[in-house]
Amino acid sequence: MARGSCDLRILLLAAAAAFIYIQVRLFATQSHYAERLAEAERSENQCTSQLKSLIDQVSMQQEKIVALEGSILFMWSDAYLTKRPCGNATEIKIRQDEERAHLKILIQDLEKRSVQKLLDKNVVPVAAVVIMACNRPDYLQRTVESILKYQSSVASKFPLFISQVLAMAISDGTNGAVKKKALDYKQITYMQHVDLEPVRTERPGELTAYYKIAKHYKWALDELFIKHNFARVIILEDDMEIAPDFFDYFEAAAKLLDNDKTIMAVSSWNDNGQKQFVYDPKALYRSDFFPGLGWMLAKSTWVELSPKWPKAGSSMGQFFKQYLEPIKLNDVHIDWNSEDLSYLGEDKFSIQFGKEVASATPLHGSDAVLKAHNMDADVRIQYNDQEDFERIARQFGIFEEWKDGVPRTAYKGVVVFRYNSSRRRIFLVGPDSLGQLGVQQR
User: Fold this and answer.
1) Could you please report the per-residue DSSP string of 274-286?
2) What span, in angstroms and rounded, lies between the C-alpha atoms of 271 and 323?
3) If pLDDT is split at 50, 70 and 90, which confidence band does 194 have?
4) Rounded CA gap, 106 and 249, in Å?
5) For residue 190, with 0-12 CB atoms within 10 Å meaning exposed, 13-18 middle and 19 or more buried, which class applies?
6) Total-model pTM
7) Backbone angles phi, psi at 53, to 5 degrees
């Protein structure tokens, strides 16, 4: 009994010693990681401090340029009114050019540091995501918060950028508020396009904003594709919200974009995406019409497009109230990476789409739209020309605009949409559409 009691004490002592040893080791390990964490935090704070310092320098530089611009305008005005030569204007112009050059260097350094901070060296990004900002800080905040809601888990795959233009025409308080709002987000790299050159329109009466917007887009895409060498870029505007499956969709679509050279861009937007015209959140289509909202481009395509980029271009909210505002935002999360998207290849899609159009019930006559309302199956209605298409589109309430001979959303001249949020499809078919799809008319 005494021996057993002694053995038990020895075991207890051994267990106590082991426990103390483990605790000491745990404490040492925790101390080690605490030191590493503190060091990482100090490094992060130093990096953040450097970025803030650079941002302050950029702001001061911008103020200098604006002040110098004001001096030149004042001196030109004074010279004109008093008919005196203005010798100092040349000197101020030289100083202004020097300040602009310095500003560009500061912005480039700021972007470089911000990008390095965002990118994970162990992950190859799927695409950079850039929000093209204007002068609406409240819209920008809503867009950013919509993106961050779904982007946080895939941040290394989809680094975020906000691009804003600094131009004399919009260098006001609202512009500054947008910049301040953009810089509030540590997860985002802020880019600024310094464009203080005067605009020369090609036609009388054109808005200079068209030229500024086109120039800003070209600059931002050149920065991301050429300077930062991203393989793909997703372009968003500052008044958009994204669906839960937005990033999954573009990750899956990136493979299509890389492998099918007949696809110029991938878009998450449907011009006829109002609630009454959609039904299946998995339905994807090819289109000959560039939607221009929420789109992804590959670097190889941009290298080809950049030298030909138009000097001006924007709808300036032309269709917002009637068509764009009522667009239904998808609320269903789809695992696009598990979906087989090979059917979207040009040959496969044309054959299958042609079969679907051909199998739809043809309707003819001036009352074809009325007949469509009373059918319980897919139908197709042929239009003869642009005027005829616009007449039919108005009766259904879909987008009636054409550009360069192509209706919005059309593929081979065919515009497809759902009838009254149902499974039923309406195909508006051009005079040559069936032939282009390889379908023999019966």
Assistant:
1) BGGG---TT----
2) 7
3) confident
4) 36
5) buried
6) 0.75
7) -60, -45
